[in-house]
Each structure stands twice: as structure tokens, then as C-alpha cells.
Specification:
Layout lengths: L8 E7 L3 E8 L5 E7 L3 H9 L5 E6 L5 H7 L5 E5 L1 H8 L6 H13 L5 E2 L4 H33 L10 H11 L5 H32 L5 H7 L7 H11 L8 H8 L3 E6 L2 E7 L5 H17 L1 H14 L1 H22 L10
Parallel strand pairs: 1-4, 4-5
Antiparallel strand pairs: 1-2, 2-3, 5-6, 7-8
Helix pairs in contact: 5-7, 5-9, 6-7, 9-11, 11-12, 11-13, 12-13
Length: about 350
């Protein structure tokens, strides 16, 4: 009697900036083959993956520049997953560290159902993520230029206004340029040029963020997040972009760990000590939550009570990090329940 094998092909990809190595592995018959491709030859890559035997599952190693390959392969393959590179390597044990070995390790783990999978945001979430990250990066550049301008002012003992933008700096120069050294006046006008450009770009990006948040994917979630004290356009868009699907976190510690708010733990010889937060995960998320936490402390009396209680014991900065973490947990609970913000019952 002839037995027909039901082939199930698993493809592991070890991705680098210049090349990628693909391992095509059949979990049924054990057949295996390798293919090395040049990343700049997009047409050749599309032809190779489009010709794979079906059914198949493709796993891409999670690196910082995987997204171009994901968007290229998504319409071509049966199923696409993102492999957690660190955990996959840990499961490989003492295997050799080569491109072929890495690709084969991913394919074999995928075939036996042990591949650690990372989160790959859908296209609309990735667009929001790119836009919010660009906006936040420009905001940091804006602050850097302002700090430089303030240092020049302070060097001449003419500090100027506490809060400043390009318009305020222009007014300052019109009033005090004649009293400054020529070189410092020139430096400040250069700061004006940079601030005007950055502020125009920030304005365009914030308009784009407002448009993205009106999409059906984000509009209901944005309406819930906007009910939180201290949460505006930038915080809302950054949280939605960096967290993605709130429902993928089944318990509160998971989302706290993802954001890097979980404390480092040192455990040895029966002694335990909690250190600083781990700071794993997206730094943009922690940054905007920290800014939102300061505003929430000013606006919400219950949040302020919690902050005062923690700050008396651990200091103001530790307390504001604790408020930022709690705000993320409150957002997670509110989004999962579909309910707006409710002030915490007690401090």
C-alpha cells in the first residue's frame, strides 16, 4: 500500500542588512535545503518565496530592520510569523553560530511548535508607530536646541523667558541682540532657524496623527484614552502605536514588563532585592507616560494623593515612575473593559 505524506513546510530566515539565509524544512519527511539571497534584489526574493511548496509557514528573525521584508512577503506566503531572536538562540543550546545554523534553528523550532514568537504590528499600527516616533524624535531635537539657546543666554546673564519657542526667541533677540556679543547673537539666530523648521515639521506630524486616530481601528480606543488625565494627542497616539493590541496582554504584569516598568530582581542565597526598573521595551512609551503622569498629578486629586504617599517614602522621581506605570495599567484595564477612565478609589 502506498502512503502519501502530507508535507508541511517551515521556512526560517536569518536576516542581515546585506543578505538573508532561508532554510526550507519539511517536518514530515525531514527534507531540508538552504538559499542565500541578496537583500537589495527584491524581485529575486519575491520570486523565491512565491515559488515555495504549499502549505508553508515563514518565520523571520526579529531584528531592527525586519519590516521591509515582512511587508514584501506578507502577500506572498501562506503564513508569516516573527521569531524572537534572543529566545530562539537560547533554545538552540551550543549549536554553531552561523547563518545557516540560525535559519535552520528557527525552521526546526517552528516545525515542532516551540518557536518563541514576537509581536509584529499590523500595517496600520506600524504607520501610526512610525509617525509617533518621528514626532517624538523631533520633539527631543526641539528641546535640545532650546537648551542650547538657553545656555547662550545664561552665559550672558540674560536668561530670557522660562518657556520659549521660536517666536519667543525672535522677540528676545529683537530686544537684546545689541547687548550680546556678536558671535552669540549669530548662534541664537541659527537656533531660531532650527526651531522654525522643527516646529513646522511637528505641526505637520501632529495633523497626521490626528488623521490616523480617526481611523476605525483607533477611534474607539482613542476615545477611551482621551478620558485619562494628562493624556492628549501625543500620549494617546504613542500608547496605541507602541502597545498595539491591548488584548495580547492577559494579565497586568505582562504589559508592565513589556513597557520596561517591571523592577529588576536580585535573588541570591535566599536574599531578594528589587532594583531599578528594567527599561526593556519601547522607550517612547515610558517617556510619554512619564510626561502624562506629571500632568495627571496636577489635574487629578486622587492621583496626586498616590504620588504624595509614594514620594514621601521613595522620592518624587520614583513616585512619578510609579504613577506612569499605574496609568499604563489603568489604560489596559479600561481598554479591555471598554470603559472610560475612573479615578482610583483610594490612595
Amino acid at each position: 500500500m502506498c502512503v502519501t505524506l502530507a508535507h508541511r513546510w517551515c521556512v526560517g530566515i536569518d536576516l542581515h542588512k546585506e543578505t538573508l539565509t532561508a532554510c526550507v524544512y519539511c517536518s514530515c519527511c525531514g527534507e531540508i535545503r538552504f538559499q542565500k539571497l541578496v537583500c537589495r534584489c527584491r524581485k529575486q526574493i519575491a520570486e523565491f518565496f512565491g515559488s515555495l511548496p504549499r502549505p508553508h509557514v515563514v518565520a523571520i528573525e526579529a531584528v531592527g530592520f525586519y519590516r521591509w521584508l515582512w511587508e514584501l512577503l506578507e502577500p506572498l506566503v501562506d503564513k508569516l510569523v516573527l521569531a524572537d531572536a534572543t529566545q530562539a538562540r537560547a533554545l538552540a543550546g551550543r549549536r554553531m553560530k552561523t547563518d545557516r545554523e540560525d535559519a535552520q534553528n528557527i525552521a526546526e523550532l517552528l516545525a515542532c511548535g516551540r518557536l518563541p514568537v514576537a509581536y509584529a504590528p499590523p500595517f496600520e499600527v506600524q504607520v501610526l508607530r512610525d509617525c509617533s516616533r518621528q514626532r517624538n524624535a523631533l520633539s527631543r531635537q526641539h528641546a535640545h536646541v532650546l537648551h542650547r539657546a538657553k545656555s547662550v543666554m545664561n552665559a550672558n546673564n540674560r536668561p530670557g523667558p522660562a518657556r520659549m519657542d521660536s517666536a519667543a526667541l525672535i522677540r528676545y533677540l529683537k530686544a537684546f541682540e545689541s547687548r550680546l556679543p556678536e558671535r552669540h547673537g549669530r548662534y541664537l539666530w541659527q537656533c531660531v532657524d532650527q526651531l522654525v523648521l522643527i516646529e513646522r515639521q511637528l505641526s505637520h506630524l501632529e495633523i497626521e496623527l490626528e488623521r490616523l486616530l480617526t481611523q476605525p481601528t483607533f477611534a474607539p480606543l482613542a476615545a477611551i484614552l482621551h478620558t485619562f488625565p494628562g493624556v492628549g494627542l501625543v500620549t494617546c497616539s504613542t500608547v496605541l502605536a507602541e502597545v498595539g493590541d491591548f488584548n495580547r496582554f492577559t494579565y497586568r504584569k505582562a504589559i508592565s514588563r513589556y513597557a520596561g516598568f517591571d523592577p529588576r530582581t536580585f535573588d541570591s542565597a535566599g536574599k531578594q532585592r528589587a532594583g531599578h526598573i528594567s527599561k526593556r521595551g519601547p522607550s517612547n512609551l515610558r517617556w510619554v507616560l512619564g510626561q502624562a503622569a506629571w500632568t495627571a498629578v496636577r489635574l487629578d486629586p486622587q492621583v496626586k494623593r498616590i504620588w504624595l504617599r509614594i514620594s514621601r517614602k521613595s522620592g518624587k522621581k520614583v513616585a512619578i515612575v510609579a504613577i506612569a506605570r499605574r496609568m499604563l495599567l489603568w489604560m489596559w484595564r479600561a481598554v479591555r473593559a471598554g470603559q472610560p477612565y475612573r479615578a482610583p478609589a483610594s490612595a
